[in-house]
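agent> step 3/5: call structure_predict on target 'DUF3027 domain-containing protein' (Catellatospora aurea).
agent> reason: downstream docking stage needs a structural representation; sequence fetched in step 2, passing through unchanged.
tool.input:
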Amino acid sequence: MGNVTRTATRAPKVDQACAEAVDVARAAITEEPGHIGEHLNVVAEGDRVVTHYFACDLPGYRGWQWAVTVTRAPRSKHVTVCETVLLPGGDALLAPGWVPWHERLHPGDLGVGDLLPTPEDDDRLTPGYLLGGDPEVDEVAWELGLGRPRVLSPLGREEAAQRWYDGENGPDAPISLAAPRTARCVSCAFYVKLGGSLGRMFGACANVYAPDDGRIVSLDHGCGGHSEVLIDETVIPAPPTIYDDGVVEEVE
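tool.output (status=ok):
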């Protein structure tokens, strides 16, 4: 191995003239004097370059600091200002980190008139010419040449199925748990089975009186609007006719 030369990095020294220019640094801050707090410290940035830190008293900026960098030319005692900036301190209140819009979306956020572009690399989709892996759908699409640019990928179908099953239209929904055990969608006349592999677990509700009308439901979902839910009507017999002789006036 060759000889390795290590060069020690010399920490810059605090320039005395620049460090004493507290008033020069304070005057460089253009905010109202009432918003500039006490002088906190001074840090050497380089040869004859230091930064003064002042507390910030602006409303809503708790823990922030004014930073003013000053310098001077060699063999000169005249200190000039390089820049001023407002920086967060260790306990400053900061805005939350930026989150891309597509990561902030939640199910159901799309409203009337909204446009939601789908990313080119969306894992839920696959190019139509590759087929989607659903034998029943792929066979029809291949024969008819539907030519959709993209179709659901196996991952897209799996995520949709899990989301539907775990949601308000699955077996654990409150309305499903409150319904009779025999009132399951799979045996309901209003249950319209989906095509393709998703049809093995899901269908659409067609009962206009049910809260799930027009929605995807799992075959083991249920509600009180099941077509075969029958209520035994109890017939109450009419009481016998009773005459009160005490109010009848006898006439000869």
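agent> step 4/5: record observation. The first strand starts at residue 36 and ends at 46.
agent> proceeding.
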